[in-house]
């Protein structure tokens, strides 16, 4: 079974060919490292999967069902969640409020629907516990460490029955200790059978947490192999073009 | 491990007292109360029934508009057009009623005029993507000009068959309390409820905190922003109708410069012009404090020329307090 299957995905913006015939399969609970230099097409590929725009050519299947996304909401409805690079958090709100942002739980007295604080705090606490993160639902995000902020952004992806989580550079701007925390969060997701696509520039992170590595160069996939069969040196050579293909 | 994680997650970091002490609104409220107590002892006139009645009624108008302004400021915007909108709706009330229509029609059309102003502001800001400062600065000019055009710059002081009703609405009392003050209290309660208990309230805070995040998480940001400016204009419209009844006449310079007093009230009450922070109670307290300062200068026999200096200093002091506290927190 595959969770996500891309077949012959191409994308051009006018005369610029951003992606050229990229195919990719991801199984359940698989963590895939997506690497490549700036401009290699990583963001374009992620945006296609996340539903920001459709591909020019090619098909996409989620759980063996063909899908066509035109809006991010449609991708979310199909079990694809995204953790954005800047995490898309509101500093002035609590952790729980951020987790439920745009999907607030409400309870009603007839036509009047009010926010259900108790349940949102309880569910957010359960999610943080599941992620083994010391994050308090009632604390303002403003006061939180980088690792806790990541936990909030990741907890958000666990609200619905998501199959696959895209993470865009989650370890780019945080301290060493917090990087370890984030990698642990990714392992927790994997343990629950959720597939993760990790976009990263950091070789050690990819090699410590991923099962598979995919390298893009100038819009083309140049490598797609088990992490065990590769090495940081090989990947560096693939990214820079010193090695044509692997 | 599991137990300690549970403890950490469920640990309450703030006691109610420390939460209260960390609120700018609380300190401003305290300042207003202390000022009132001091004035009670320093003058014979402050704590009289008449004076208190006047003070509370006077700040009600600014307070009502400040609640709408608070909504805008929480969402990260600003509305400079409220003074002109207030004038426009007052003029519409006056013209419609002096043409012989009943009070209800006068109020309805005045509020429609205000809502139209809000829709134009909101659509230009949310859908066209123009900065709120520019759009509402333009509207400040346009709305007042509309008031001039409609009234031909004539004072309206006759309000047709329902004149007594209108004067009672804005200038009268219910159970000894000035009607505008009751309207203010009701609106503050509604706003407080909406801020705390509704998804819409949560979303305006989110938009003010990080608009991009709100967009990405599926909050209908554009629609909410239009709503925010409509509410601001609507509060100005309501205050316009009430002021017409209180004054018993409308001129086209009504509400000139009022936007600055309203913004001052909101900021003194703890709203952050950067967005994401503000309370309905704060808007009321801010408006009250400005009026108490004004009133006290008169009662103490100090020239009213000093009013601007006091109010202005208070804005700076209130915000400086906030800065000092956040420096301490970051240490």
From TrEMBL, chain B:
<keyword id="KW-1003">Cell membrane</keyword>
<feature type="transmembrane region" description="Helical">
    <location>
        <begin position="297"/>
        <end position="321"/>
    </location>
</feature>
<dbReference type="Pfam" id="PF02653">
    <property type="entry name" value="BPD_transp_2"/>
</dbReference>
<protein>
    <submittedName>
        <fullName>Ribose transport system permease protein</fullName>
    </submittedName>
</protein>
<feature type="transmembrane region" description="Helical">
    <location>
        <begin position="260"/>
        <end position="290"/>
    </location>
</feature>
<feature type="transmembrane region" description="Helical">
    <location>
        <begin position="124"/>
        <end position="149"/>
    </location>
</feature>
<feature type="transmembrane region" description="Helical">
    <location>
        <begin position="90"/>
        <end position="117"/>
    </location>
</feature>
<dbReference type="InterPro" id="IPR001851">
    <property type="entry name" value="ABC_transp_permease"/>
</dbReference>
<keyword id="KW-0472">Membrane</keyword>
<keyword id="KW-1133">Transmembrane helix</keyword>
<feature type="transmembrane region" description="Helical">
    <location>
        <begin position="59"/>
        <end position="78"/>
    </location>
</feature>
<feature type="transmembrane region" description="Helical">
    <location>
        <begin position="226"/>
        <end position="248"/>
    </location>
</feature>
<feature type="transmembrane region" description="Helical">
    <location>
        <begin position="169"/>
        <end position="195"/>
    </location>
</feature>
<keyword id="KW-0997">Cell inner membrane</keyword>
<feature type="transmembrane region" description="Helical">
    <location>
        <begin position="26"/>
        <end position="47"/>
    </location>
</feature>
<keyword id="KW-0812">Transmembrane</keyword>
<keyword id="KW-0813">Transport</keyword>
């Amino acid at each position: 079974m595959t969770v996500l299957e891309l077949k012959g995905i191409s994308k051009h913006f006018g005369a610029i060919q951003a992606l050229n015939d990229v195919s990719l399969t991801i199984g359940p609970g698989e963590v895939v490292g997506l690497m490549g230099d700036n401009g290699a097409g990583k963001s374009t590929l992620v945006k296609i999967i996340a539903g920001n725009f459709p591909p020019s050519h090619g098909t996409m299947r989620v759980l063996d069902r063909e899908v066509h996304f035109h809006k991010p909401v449609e991708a979310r409805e199909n079990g694809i969640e995204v953790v954005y690079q800047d995490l898309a958090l509101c500093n002035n709100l609590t952790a729980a409020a951020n987790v439920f942002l745009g999907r607030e739980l409400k309870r009603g007295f007839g036509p009047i629907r009010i926010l259900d604080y108790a349940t949102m705090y309880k569910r957010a606490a359960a999610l943080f516990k599941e992620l083994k993160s010391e994050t308090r639902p009632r604390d303002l995000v403003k006061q939180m460490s980088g690792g806790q902020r990541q936990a909030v952004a990741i907890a958000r992806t666990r609200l619905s029955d998501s199959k696959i989580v895209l993470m865009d550079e989650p370890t780019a701007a945080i301290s060493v200790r917090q990087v370890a925390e984030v990698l642990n969060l990714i392992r927790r997701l994997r343990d629950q059978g959720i597939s993760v696509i990790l976009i990263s520039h950091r070789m050690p992170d990819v090699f410590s947490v991923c099962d598979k590595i995919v390298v893009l160069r100038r819009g083309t996939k140049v490598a797609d192999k088990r992490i065990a069969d590769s090495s940081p040196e090989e990947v560096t050579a693939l990214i820079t073009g010193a090695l044509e293909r692997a | 491990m599991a137990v300690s994680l549970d403890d950490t997650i469920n640990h309450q970091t703030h006691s109610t007292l420390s939460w209260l002490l960390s609120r700018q609104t609380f300190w401003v409220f305290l300042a207003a109360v202390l000022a009132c107590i001091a004035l009670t002892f320093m003058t014979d006139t402050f704590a009289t029934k008449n004076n208190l009645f006047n003070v509370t009624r006077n700040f009600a108008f600014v307070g009502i508009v400040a609640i709408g302004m608070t909504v805008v400021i929480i969402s990260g915007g600003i509305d400079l057009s409220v003074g002109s909108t207030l004038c426009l709706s007052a003029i519409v009330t006056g013209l419609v009623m002096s043409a012989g229509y009943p009070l209800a029609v006068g109020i309805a059309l005045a509020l429609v005029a205000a809502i139209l102003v809000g829709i134009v502001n909101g659509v230009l800001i949310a859908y066209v993507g123009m900065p709120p400062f520019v759009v509402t600065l333009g509207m400040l000019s346009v709305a007042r000009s509309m008031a001039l055009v409609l009234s031909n710059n004539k004072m309206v002081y006759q309000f047709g068959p329902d004149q007594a009703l209108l004067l009672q609405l804005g200038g009268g009392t219910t159970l000894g309390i000035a009607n505008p003050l009751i309207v203010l209290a009701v609106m503050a309660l509604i706003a407080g409820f909406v801020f705390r208990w509704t998804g819409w309230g949560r979303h305006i805070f989110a938009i003010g905190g990080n608009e991009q995040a709100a967009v990405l998480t599926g909050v209908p940001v554009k629609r909410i922003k239009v709503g925010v400016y409509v509410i601001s204009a609507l509060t100005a419209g309501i205050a316009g109708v009430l002021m017409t009844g209180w004054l018993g006449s409308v001129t086209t310079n009504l509400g000139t410069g009022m936007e600055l007093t309203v913004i001052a009230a909101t900021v003194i009450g703890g709203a952050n012009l950067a967005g994401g922070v503000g309370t309905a109670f704060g808007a009321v307290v801010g408006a009250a404090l400005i009026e108490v300062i004004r009133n006290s200068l008169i009662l103490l026999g100090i020239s009213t020329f000093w009013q601007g200096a006091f109010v202005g200093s208070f804005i700076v002091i209130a915000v400086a307090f906030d800065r000092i506290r956040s420096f301490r927190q970051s240490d």
